[in-house]
């Protein structure tokens, strides 16, 4: 078993001593207007990925991957309908092979289901990724209408990534925080990222 699974983002892997532990469930929280999808692309490129979309059709997601520069591969993309979404998503992750990634983008639809059933879904997902040394990534939209069960998502998750985007004048600044990291050390400070064609560290100096 590997000690860490790469995130596909070198600067983040370095900060996390190689990546995240196999079997982790990651909650990626980000504003809807941010470039957080670039983080999902990098995470998906790191290993075979089943990419579940809850708000766009499969063709739109595949097209986005095809247009993204530098993508080395295409994940399997499946749409989860609004009718019984937890059951559909469970059927999908249950066939996840070893050493792979399961992405839910976004997880908001699932967070709006019955609390007990959603909790059971999260526990079943955790058990499956742990038994297959895989990685689950739940994309949480941190917008104007956050689902009531968001706290449950972040509590159950092993790792929490929080992307903060600030627009000041003609400058857009992206900072990634890792306030929670089971099996490792949470980062004491944020990472300034440049989200353009890919995810890189922003080397510009902060101006006080």
Please characterize this protein's 3D structure.
This protein is α/β, with parallel strands linked by helices and 208 residues long. Helix content is 30%, strand content 27%. The protein has a nine-stranded mixed sheet with strand order 3-2-4-5-1-6-7-8-9, with helices on both faces. Helix 4 runs parallel beside helix 6.
Tell me, what's the shape? globular
What's the level 1 CATH class?
A: Alpha Beta
What topology, given as strand order, has the largest sheet?
A: 3-2-4-5-1-6-7-8-9
Q: How many structural domains in the coordinates? A: 1
CATH homologous superfamily designation: P-loop containing nucleotide triphosphate hydrolases
Calculate the terminal CA-CA distance, rounded to whole Å: 45 Å
**Quantity of strands, as a count:** 9
Mean pLDDT: 91
In N-to-C order, the SSE pattern is HEHEHEHEHHEHEEEE
- Enumerate how many helices there are, as a single number: 7
Low-pLDDT segments, ≥5 res: none
List the helices and strands and how they pair.
Layout (H helix, E strand, L loop, with lengths): L9 H6 L8 E7 L5 H10 L3 E5 L4 H10 L8 E4 L5 H9 L7 E5 L2 H4 L3 H17 L3 E7 L8 H7 L2 E10 L2 E11 L9 E5 L3 E3 L7
Parallel strand pairs: 1-5, 1-6, 2-3, 2-4, 4-5
Antiparallel strand pairs: 6-7, 7-8, 8-9
Overview in brief:
By secondary structure, this protein is α/β, with parallel strands linked by helices. It has helices spanning 10-15, 36-45, 58-67, 85-93, 108-111, 115-131, 150-156, and strands at 24-30, 49-53, 76-79, 101-105, 135-141, 159-168, 171-181, 191-195, 199-201.
């Amino acid at each position: 078993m590997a000690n860490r699974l790469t995130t596909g983002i070198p600067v983040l892997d370095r900060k996390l001593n190689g990546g995240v532990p196999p079997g982790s469930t990651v909650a990626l929280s980000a504003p809807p207007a941010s470039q957080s999808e670039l983080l999902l692309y990098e995470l998906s490129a790191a290993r075979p990925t089943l990419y579940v979309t809850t708000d766009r059709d499969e063709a739109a997601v595949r097209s986005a991957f095809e247009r993204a520069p530098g993508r080395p591969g295409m994940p399997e993309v499946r749409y989860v309908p609004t009718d019984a979404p937890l059951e559909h998503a469970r059927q999908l992750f249950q066939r996840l092979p070893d050493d792979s990634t399961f992405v839910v983008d976004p997880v908001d639809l699932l967070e709006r289901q019955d609390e007990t059933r959603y909790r059971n879904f999260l526990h079943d997902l955790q058990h499956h990724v742990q038994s297959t040394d895989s990685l689950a990534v739940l994309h949480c939209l941190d917008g104007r209408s956050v689902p009531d069960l968001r706290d449950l998502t972040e509590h159950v998750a092993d790792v929490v990534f929080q992307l903060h985007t600030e627009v000041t004048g003609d400058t857009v600044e992206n900072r990634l925080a890792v306030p929670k990291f089971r099996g490792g050390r949470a980062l004491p400070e944020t990472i300034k990222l440049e989200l353009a064609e890919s995810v890189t560290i922003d080397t510009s100096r902060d101006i006080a």
